[in-house]
Inverse folding.
C-alpha cells in the first residue's frame, strides 16, 4: 500500500475509532443518566409518600394533643377542688358535730317540755274539762305531740332533726378526702406526664413534617437536575451517533450490520454498504481507455470478511488479499460481483450448530439451499477469518474489500485495492419472548409465555407504582418528548372522571324521581309518566356511555408509570426490586407469583395497601453468565391492567 493510501486508511480508522469510542461513552453516560433519573424519581416518590404519612401522623397527634390538653385542664380543676375540699371538709366535720350536739341538747329540752305539757294537759283534762283553759292546754299539747298523721308535732320534729344532724355529722366524717386528694394528685401527675409525652410526640411529628417537606424539596431538585442531565446526555448521544453515522457514510462506504429483531434464535444478519466511487473524473469521458467493460467500474468485486472484535487491530489489507485466494467453499469471505448499483445488501445465514442446535443428517444437503418461488437459492454462510463459525454472544466486526479493475489501477498508477475500516461492533443474541395476558386476582399474579424450550429463562415480576397524582410532573420515557401533551391528557382524564361521577349522580336522582312520581298513580298514568322520563333517562345513559369510552381511551394513554421506566432500567434492577415467577404446574399452564407483605415495588419499597400498581414481567436468562447471549423481553405495559394491593386477612 502506498503512503497516501496508508495515511488515508489510518486517518479514517482513527476518526471512526475515536467517534465509536465517543459513541460508546455517550451511550454509557445515557444509560447512567437513565438510572440516575430513575432512582432520583424513586427518591422523590418515597419522599412524597413519607410526607403524606408525616402529615397524617401530624393531624393524628394534633387531635391527641387537643384532647390531652382538655383532660389536663379538667384534671387541674379536679385537683384544685379536691385540695379545697381537703381544707374545708375537716372544718365541716367539726362544725357538723357541734351542730349535731347542739341539736341534741335542743331536742332533749323539747322532749322534757313535751313531757311537762303532757302532764299539764292530763291535769287540766281531769279538773277543767271543756273550759277555756282546757282548750288552751289541748292546743299546746297538739302542737307539741301532734294531732294527725300530717301534723306530727314539735317533739317528733325535734327527734327527727336530731337524727338528721347525727347522720349528717356521720356522713361528713366518712368522706375520704385525704385518700381522694392523694389519688387526684397522682392522676393529675399522670395526665401531666401524658401531656408531656403527647406534646413531645406532636413536636416530633411537626419536626418530621418540616424535615420531610425539606427532603421532598431536595428530592424534587435532584430529580429535576437528573431530568436535565438525561436530556443533555440524550442530545449528546444522538449528536454523537449522527456524527458517527455521517462519518461512516462519507468515509467508510456506510458499512453497516443489521441484526434480526425476530424472537427466538437468530437465523441470519445483513451486511450493507455503498458502492465505491472513484475520487477522479470518469476517464472514459476523457477518451482514455480503461481496459474494462465492467458495470461497477472502478470496482471489479467486493469481498465481505467477518473478524472477531478483539482481532480487528491485526486485520490488514494484506490479510484480506491473502484470504481471497482461498477456496470460497471455506466460507472465509463472501464475494459480491460489482454492478452499477448504488448500494449492496447481503443476507448472511447462520448455521444451526453455530447456535448450539444439533442438525439432522438429512438436513445437511438442504443447509445451503433455500427454495423461493420454485427457485433454488444458495444461502450465504460466513466464518470468521480464522475459520470459526459465528457464535452467539461473541463480539464481531465486518470489513469490505473492494478489488479494483485492472484498467482503473493502471490509470491511477496504483495497484492497491481498498479495504474499509471495521464496521461498528455487533453481537448476535437470542431474543426472548415477552409475557402475555398478565392478570392479578386475589393477590396472585398469572401470565403466559411461549418460550423456546431450550432456553433457561426466569421471569422477573416487577410492580410499578401507578399514582398519577403522586408522580405528576415526573419525566417518563414518552414524556421526554411529549411532556406537554401528557400533562394535558392527565388533566382531561380527571375532568372526564368528574363528569362521569356527575352523570351517575344525575341518573340516580332521576331513578329516585321516577320511583316517587309513580307511587300514588294509576297504572295508565304510570305508563305516561315513565314514557316522559324514558327519553331523559336514555340521554343520560348515552352521555355516560360516551364519557366512559373517552375515559378508557385516556386510561390507555395514561396507563404507564408516571416515572422513567424502560427495558434498560428493568434489566438493571437489583434483586430486592422484583420477584421470580413460579413455573407452570397442573392444567392451568400459567406462570404464577404470590403477592404478599414481603413483595416490593420497582424501587425496592414494600407495597402499600390501597395503592395501585402495574404488574410487568421481564424475561431474562437464569444464569448471569448467559446474559451476553440473550436480549430480554419486557411485557407490554399498555396492555396490562392496574390492580389495587390489599393485605390479605385470614
Amino acid at each position: 500500500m502506498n503512503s497516501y493510501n496508508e495515511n488515508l486508511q489510518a486517518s479514517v480508522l482513527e476518526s471512526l475509532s475515536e467517534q465509536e469510542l465517543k459513541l460508546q461513552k455517550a451511550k454509557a453516560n445515557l444509560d447512567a443518566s437513565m438510572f440516575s433519573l430513575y432512582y432520583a424519581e424513586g427518591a422523590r416518590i418515597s419522599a412524597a409518600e413519607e410526607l403524606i404519612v408525616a402529615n397524617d401522623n401530624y393531624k393524628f397527634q394534633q387531635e391527641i394533643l387537643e384532647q390531652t390538653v382538655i383532660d389536663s385542664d379538667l384534671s387541674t380543676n379536679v385537683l384544685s377542688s379536691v385540695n379545697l375540699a381537703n381544707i374545708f371538709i375537716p372544718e365541716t366535720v367539726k362544725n357538723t358535730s357541734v351542730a349535731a350536739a347542739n341539736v341534741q341538747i335542743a331536742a332533749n329540752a323539747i322532749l322534757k317540755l313535751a313531757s311537762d305539757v303532757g302532764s299539764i294537759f292530763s291535769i287540766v283534762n281531769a279538773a277543767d274539762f271543756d273550759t277555756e283553759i282546757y282548750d288552751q292546754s289541748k292546743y299546746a299539747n297538739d302542737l307539741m305531740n301532734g294531732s294527725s298523721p300530717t301534723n306530727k308535732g314539735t317533739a317528733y320534729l325535734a327527734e327527727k332533726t336530731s337524727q338528721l344532724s347525727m347522720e349528717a355529722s356521720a356522713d361528713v366524717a366518712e368522706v375520704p378526702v385525704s385518700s381522694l386528694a392523694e389519688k387526684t394528685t397522682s392522676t393529675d401527675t399522670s395526665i401531666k406526664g401524658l401531656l408531656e409525652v403527647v406534646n413531645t410526640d406532636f413536636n416530633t411529628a411537626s419536626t418530621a413534617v418540616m424535615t420531610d417537606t425539606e427532603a421532598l424539596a431536595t428530592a424534587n431538585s435532584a430529580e429535576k437536575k437528573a431530568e436535565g442531565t438525561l436530556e443533555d446526555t440524550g442530545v449528546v448521544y444522538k449528536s454523537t451517533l449522527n456524527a458517527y453515522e455521517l462519518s461512516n457514510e462519507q468515509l467508510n462506504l456506510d458499512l453497516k450490520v443489521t441484526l434480526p429483531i425476530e424472537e427466538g434464535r437468530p437465523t441470519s444478519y445483513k451486511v450493507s454498504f455503498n458502492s465505491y466511487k472513484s475520487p477522479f473524473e470518469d476517464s472514459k469521458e476523457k477518451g482514455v481507455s480503461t481496459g474494462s467493460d465492467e458495470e461497477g467500474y472502478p470496482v471489479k468485486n467486493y469481498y465481505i470478511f467477518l473478524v472477531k472484535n478483539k482481532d480487528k487491530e491485526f486485520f490488514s489489507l494484506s490479510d484480506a488479499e491473502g484470504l481471497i485466494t482461498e477456496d470460497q467453499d471455506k466460507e472465509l469471505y463472501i464475494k459480491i460481483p460489482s454492478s452499477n448499483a448504488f448500494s449492496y445488501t447481503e443476507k448472511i445465514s447462520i448455521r444451526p450448530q453455530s447456535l448450539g442446535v444439533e442438525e439432522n443428517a438429512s438436513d445437511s444437503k438442504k443447509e445451503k439451499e433455500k427454495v423461493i418461488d420454485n427457485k433454488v437459492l444458495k444461502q450465504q454462510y460466513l466464518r470468521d477469518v480464522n475459520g470459526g463459525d459465528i457464535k452467539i454472544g461473541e463480539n464481531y466486526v465486518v470489513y469490505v474489500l473492494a478489488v479494483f479493475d485492472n484498467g482503473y489501477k493502471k490509470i491511477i498508477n496504483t495497484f492497491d485495492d481498498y479495504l474499509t475500516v471495521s464496521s461498528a461492533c455487533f453481537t448476535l443474541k437470542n431474543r426472548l419472548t415477552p409475557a402475555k395476558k398478565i392478570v392479578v386476582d386475589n393477590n396472585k399474579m398469572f401470565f403466559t409465555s411461549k418460550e423456546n424450550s431450550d432456553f433457561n429463562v426466569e421471569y422477573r415480576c416487577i410492580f410499578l407504582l401507578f399514582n398519577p397524582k403522586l408522580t405528576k410532573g415526573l419525566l417518563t420515557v414518552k414524556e421526554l418528548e411529549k411532556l406537554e401533551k401528557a400533562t394535558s391528557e392527565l388533566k382531561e382524564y380527571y375532568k372526564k372522571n368528574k363528569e362521569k361521577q356527575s352523570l351517575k349522580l344525575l341518573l340516580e336522582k332521576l331513578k329516585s324521581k321516577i320511583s316517587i312520581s309513580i307511587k300514588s298513580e294509576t297504572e295508565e298514568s304510570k305508563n305516561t309518566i315513565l314514557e316522559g322520563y324514558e327519553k331523559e333517562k336514555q340521554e343520560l345513559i348515552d352521555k355516560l356511555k360516551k364519557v366512559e369510552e373517552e375515559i378508557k381511551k385516556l386510561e390507555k394513554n395514561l396507563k404507564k408509570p408516571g416515572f422513567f421506566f424502560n427495558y434498560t432500567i428493568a434489566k438493571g434492577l437489583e434483586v430486592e426490586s422484583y420477584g421470580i415467577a413460579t413455573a407452570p404446574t397442573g392444567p392451568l399452564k400459567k406462570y404464577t407469583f404470590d403477592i404478599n407483605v414481603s413483595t416490593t415495588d420497582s424501587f425496592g419499597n414494600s407495597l402499600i395497601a390501597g395503592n395501585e400498581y402495574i404488574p410487568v414481567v421481564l424475561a431474562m436468562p437464569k444464569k448471569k453468565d448467559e446474559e451476553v447471549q440473550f436480549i430480554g423481553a419486557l411485557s407490554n405495559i399498555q396492555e396490562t391492567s392496574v390492580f389495587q394491593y390489599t393485605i390479605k386477612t385470614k
Notes: Residues 3-127 form the longest helix (125 residues).
